[in-house]
Amino acid sequence: MAEIQDAKYEQLGLSKTVSQVGGINAYHRNLDKISSTNPLLVLIHGYPQSAYEWRLMIPLLPAEIPLFCPDLPGYGQSKAMSEQHTKLDFGITILEALRSILPGNQIVPLILIGHDRGARIAHRLQVSSSAGEPQLKELNLNIIGIALLDILPTKLMWSLGSEAAVQVGSFHWAFLANVELAMEMLQAYGGGKWAQKLIMRWAGSNEKRLDKLKSGDAMDVYGSFFDKKSVLRASCEDYKAGASLDVTAQGEDQDNRRLIDAPVLLLYGKEYLGAKANVKVLDAWIDWVKDQSLITEIAIQDGVGHFVAEEAAEETAEALLNWIETIQGKVA
C-alpha cells in the first residue's frame, strides 16, 4: 500500500525523497521558497500512522507554503534507527534528513506541526533547540513555533496513570514499552489489525468525520505498514523510550525550568483529549511553557476524536493558518 501514499503526494504536487541521512522517506515542496514571511512547515505524524495522515489537510493550505512531511524513523517507509529511539533522536534524524535536501546552508525558519508521537517530537525539539543542543545548532534551523495536536505532556500522561479511566484508555503506553512481549503478541494478533483497531478505538463519534478518516484507503495503508515486523519493533522501541529516557528528560527540563519559549498552538478534540481524566488541556500545559501568552488553544467539537488532521481537516487547517499568520507578524 506504500504506492497509494506515494501516488497521493505526487497528486498533491509534492516530491518524494529517501534521504541518505537516516533513510527518512519524506514528501516536500517549495523548499527553494522559504523565507521569514514564508516559513517551512514540518508535518510530523503520530501513532499508528504514517505521513499519509496529512493528505486531507495539505490541499487546504496555500500552494506557495513550503512543506516537509516525513515518515517517522522506522514508521511507514523510513529506515528504523539502530540504537536510541528517544524523541530527540527521532527529531534530530528527521531534521538532518531535511537539512540534507535544503538548498544552501542559510538559517531556515520552520514551524513544527506534530500529532500524537509527532507532537512529542516537536515539543522535545523546541526545548532542546532553545537550550542550545549542539546537534540541532549545527543544522541552522530556527524553530519559530510548534503546533501540538491532541497531546498532553509525556511526563504528565504517566502521572495520570493513577486514574483508572486513563489507565484503561492508555493501556498501550505500558504494553508497547515491553518490547519483546508486545512484539510476540502483536505478530500473533496481526500488526495491521492492531493498528486499525487502535485507530477506530481513538476516533470520534461523528460518522461523516469517520468517513474522512477512512478515505483514500487510509486504514489499509496504515495497516499494511504495521504488518511489517520492522515497523512494529520501531514503534515499540519508540514507546519504550517514552517510558524511560523521554520521561527522565522531561523531568530534567522541569527541574531546570527549560520550557517552551516559542509560540505554541494546542489543538485537540474537545470530546476526546479535552475529556481525558477531567484534565483541562490549557492548565496541563501552562507549567511547560515560559509564558502563557505564547499559548493559543483551540478545541474542536462535533464528535471529533484523536485524529484531528483527518476527522477535522478543514478546522485544523484554518486554525493553523490563522495561528501561523500571528507568528509571521512577530518574526517578519
Report on this structure:
There is one protein chain. This protein has 332 residues and is α/β, with parallel strands linked by helices. The protein has a single domain (2-331), classed as Alpha/Beta hydrolase fold, catalytic domain (Rossmann fold, 3-Layer(aba) Sandwich), CATH 3.40.50. It has helices at residues 2-11, 87-101, 117-130, 134-137, 154-159, 164-169, 171-177, 179-189, 191-202, 207-214, 218-226, 229-242, 245-255, 281-286, 308-311, 313-331; strands at residues 15-18, 25-29, 40-44, 67-70, 108-115, 141-149, 264-269, 295-300. The chain has an eight-stranded mixed β-sheet, sandwiched between helices. Helix 14 links the parallel strand 7 (264-269) and strand 8 (295-300). The longest helix has 19 residues, at 313-331. It is globular, with a radius of gyration of 18 Å. The model has no long low-confidence stretch (mean pLDDT 95). It comes from Microthyrium microscopicum. One of its GO terms (molecular function) is hydrolase activity. Keywords: Hydrolase.
Please give the domain count: 1
Q: How many distinct beta strands?
A: 8
CATH top level class name? Alpha Beta
The CATH superfamily name is Alpha/Beta hydrolase fold, catalytic domain
Which fold name is given in CATH as the topology? Rossmann fold
What is the number of helical segments per DSSP (H or I, 4+ residues)? 16
SSE order in H/E notation? HEEEEHEHHEHHHHHHHHHEHEHH
Shape: globular
| Percent helix range | 40-55%
- Largest sheet features: 8 strands, mixed
Strand line-up across the major sheet: 1-2-4-3-5-6-7-8
InterPro entries: AB_hydrolase_1, AB_hydrolase_fold, Epox_hydrolase-like
Pfam family, one: Abhydrolase_6
Protein name: Alpha/beta-hydrolase
Keywords: Hydrolase
